[in-house]
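INFO batch 0412 | record 1 of 1 | parsing
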Amino acid sequence: MDMTGAPRTGPAARTTSAVRTTGATRTAGGARTAGDARTEPADTAFPPAPPAAPPCPTPATTSSRRRPELAAFLRGRRARVTPADVGMPPGPRRRTPGLRREEVAQLSGVGVTWYTWLEQGRPINASAQVLDAVARTLRLDQPEREHLYHLAEVPYASRHEAAAQAVSPDVQTIIDALDPYPAAVYNARYDILATNPAYRDLFLIPPIEAIGVENVLWTLFVVPVKHCPLVFRDAELPLMVATLRGEYGRHVGEPAWEHFIRELSAASPEFAALWASGDVVPPGPRVKTFWHKAVGELRMTSVSLSINGMPDCRIVAYTPDDEETTERMRQLRDLEHDDMPV
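INFO prediction complete | emitting tokens
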């Protein structure tokens, strides 16, 4: 309140040099009596409250943000394609810098109203086949096509997946140079795309090769437990399945992924139960203990390295975690060399 008894409001409610009543006055001799006023520092101003944290995005808000982006993306790509690019005459009095909406719809084999709504960002459903047709008409390259799918919230399955899985000679040279340390190239599903000799010596034992599936998870879940190279199998397999689920989030609905999950779940009830748990962990370096019948336990640190041009693939290398493992790995390589024909 101020000195008149009225409540203080606004910025003047708290200052650093307001006038306060002390409840005393001074006489001629200097003694205090009631009613005098003197200046005293008031309460220190409180800092403003921190701004509230923004709400976490929900699927509805994420979708509402994607629609305007989709509309702008389609308009921009349409504007850069001329009638001559698609074999159409330019026509007189053309005000559109690129194709008209009705021309895109005609060339894509879809209705004009439907395409107009798609470009306006309305909440309509689009199939992969229709998006492919629109992408061909607008001459989208592979990254643009994938971007279109994500904005339209349609699972994207690359038609070049098989080609993307091919390991170049340069990458093969790198993992071969890591020998005598085991190294391989995996994709996000743990498919084995390339290996070096040390990896084959350690992991590709006859019972695993007999399964005939070049996938780490498949072999570890299907091979008899007595032949599993993981010493702490019950601890390692849940982590690997949780890592797989983390990658699966970017491939939901893709035929290759759905087929793999379905088939492995049918082949291994253990995998099916772990998959149903929904656990997710990020990939990262870990110490794993393996067993080889010729040299015993091997404690190895796994390290993942990304590969340029293969975004879903990684080099996984295993290095000894202690001196004993280093010596045993050397023994294993010597045994394999002794068994080589001369």
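INFO post-check: Strands lie at 19-21, 25-26, 32-33, 37-39, 183-187, 192-195, 286-292, 296-307, 310-320.
INFO record closed
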